[in-house]
Amino acid sequence: MIELEGVPELIDPVMVAAFEGWNDAGDAASTAVAHLDREWKGEVFAALDAEDYYDFQVNRPTVFLDNGVRKITWPTTRLSVVRVGGDKPRDLVLVRGIEPSMRWRSFCNELLAFAHELGVEMVVILGALLGDTPHTRPVPVSGVTSDPDLARTMDLEETRYEGPTGIVGILQEACTHAGVPAVSLWAAVPHYVSQPPNPKATLALLNRLEDLIGMRIPLGELPEDARAWQVGVDQLAAEDSEVAEYVQTLEEARDTAELPEASGEAIAREFERYLRRREPGTGPGPGVATEGGDSPFLRDPGSGRTRPPKPEQPGPEAVPGAEPVPEPGAGTGADAGAPDGGSVPDRGATGENPSGENPSGEAPSDEGPDAGGPDGAGPKNDEGPGDDSGR
Q1: Distances (CA, A) of 352 to 7, 372, 373, 382
Q2: For residue 245, what is the enclosing H or E element?
Q3: Following DSSP, what letter does each residue of 169-222 receive, concatenated?
Q4: Low-confidence stretches of the chain (pLDDT beneath 70)
Q5: How far is CA 253 from CA 136, 259, 267, in A?
Q6: Strands (E), 253-371
Q7: pLDDT per residue over 136-185, tens digit each?
Q8: Cβ neighbour number for residue 304 with a 10 Å cutoff
Q9: pTM, whole model, 2 decimals?
Q10: How far apart are CA 190 and CA 130, in angstroms?
Q11: Tell me, what's the pLDDT at 51?
Q12: DSSP state of 153
């Protein structure tokens, strides 16, 4: 059992997690958790041992000077807690880190042990994928779960994805087997402008999270940053007639696909968000912990104990008008230009499809590049998870 010192008893806690790497296109998901930590002044209470989960040749430590003294920061995953006041206060446990290089089952078990000790009622995992979506339209965000009951009660999609997956999918499945309600929120990032940051996608994830847990989230300068980002991409796209024509094609496809979305339900969601922003007091979200499963955690075959049957790997359902495509190698300079500089590439330069699968189960669109990738997300580098990744 994990013993926590200095952590007060939490009120209806929800765990919100994001991981840099394979399922974090444009760094939209990890930036969203960092925003929550910064705005609510999170206090770190635990960090996983980097030696257990990371290959330091892949995720290298960094050296910095602190008052003339050299110190090292190791890549890891940290947990912090934020206390949100109001008429109906609620606490959040924030998990922010890097997708581990190895021992994924143990990694998830350790996070679930913290969740159990803290009394977490629901786990929300944020992710971002690359898709055929125009930057000029609202960012599509889909909410998926492996729990049929949760899908019905919270108006979520039940995932049907089969194929390679990342740590987001593995953690969601681990929560399901542990009897902890878990939801994944996925933002679709335009593949032709995939370099981070993407404040518009981050803002969309936070808005969807706000709707899910019923809490008003302070947005700070994010709305202004999102507007500036879109203006910058507009200017870059206008300089290339082929790119401008391609963006227009995506806009027409998106507008046609979303005509049914102009529904009373969509209008009601926006109105509820408006009311929350007028009244600081907010209530807790609808997630309730359940007692379920024969075992509270995943079982490692190496331990000699029984292990649940191999689950269906989770992944986001199709986002209207957006097919996931893999992200080019991180830091190679081959990605599409971002509003802070660079050029927008040819619309076909979206990288290699590592899986050959279409997570949505639909025929690939012939309006843009080939789609594919685990959980609908393109890898942040050219390497997928290794044999020990828990595919």
Answers
A1: 45, 9, 9, 8
A2: helix 241-257
A3: HHHHHHHHHHT--EEEEEEEEEGGG-SSP-HHHHHHHHHHHHHHHT-----TTH
A4: 1-6, 258-391
A5: 13, 10, 22
A6: 324-325
A7: 999 999 999 988 888 888 878 887 888 889 999 999 999 999 999 999 99
A8: 7
A9: 0.66
A10: 6
A11: 94
A12: H
Contact (Cβ atoms closer than 8 angstroms) between residue 293 and residue 179: yes
**Residue 339 corresponds to which tokens in the numbers above?**
């509003």
The residue written with tokens 């998901």 in the block is 29
Report the alpha-carbon distance of residue 287 to residue 284 in Å, rounded: 8
| Rounded Cα distance, 19 and 319, in Å | 21
Instruction: Specify whether the backbone of 109 is left (phi greater than 0), alpha (psi in -120 to 50) or beta.
Output: alpha
Distance in angstroms (rounded) separating the CA atoms of residues 375 and 298: 20
Query: How many whole angstroms separate alpha carbon 283 and alpha carbon 262?
Result: 27
Give the span between the Cα atoms of 126 and 183, in whole angstroms.
9
Question: What is the Cα–Cα distance from 371 to 122, expressed in whole angstroms?
Answer: 31
Instruction: Return the pLDDT at 41.
Output: 92
CA triplet 134, 237, 354: central angle to 5 degrees? 55
CA 204 to the chain's CA centroid: 11
Residues 145 and 172: beta-carbon distance below 8 Å: yes
Question: Is the alpha carbon torsion for 162, 164, 169, 173 positive or negative?
Answer: positive
Among the listed residues 171, 77, 81, the one whose alpha carbon sits nearest the alpha carbon of residue 120: 81
Predicted confidence at residue 9, as pLDDT, reads 84
pLDDT of residue 155: 79
Residue (of 318, 333, 330) closest to 364 by Cα position? 318
| CB-count exposure of residue 340 (10 Å: 0-12, 13-18, 19+) | exposed
Tokens for 146? 């492996």
Whole-number Å distance between alpha carbons of 242 and 216: 41
Q: Is the peptide bond before 197 cis (omega within 30 degrees of 0)?
A: yes
What's the confidence (pLDDT) of residue 55? 95
The pLDDT score that the predictor gives to residue 5 is: 66
What's the token pair of residue 204?
A: 């969309």
* 214 contacts 238 by C-beta, under 8 angstroms: no
Contact assessment for residue 21 and residue 100, using Cβ atoms and an 8 Å cutoff:
no
Give 73: exposed, middle or buried? Use CB within 10 Å, 0-12, 13-18, 19+: exposed
Specify the DSSP class assigned to residue 335.
S
Element (H, E) at 16: strand 14-20
Asked whether 81 and 93 are in contact (CB, 8 A), the reply is yes
3-class SS shares of the chain: helix, strand, coil, % to 5: 35, 20, 50
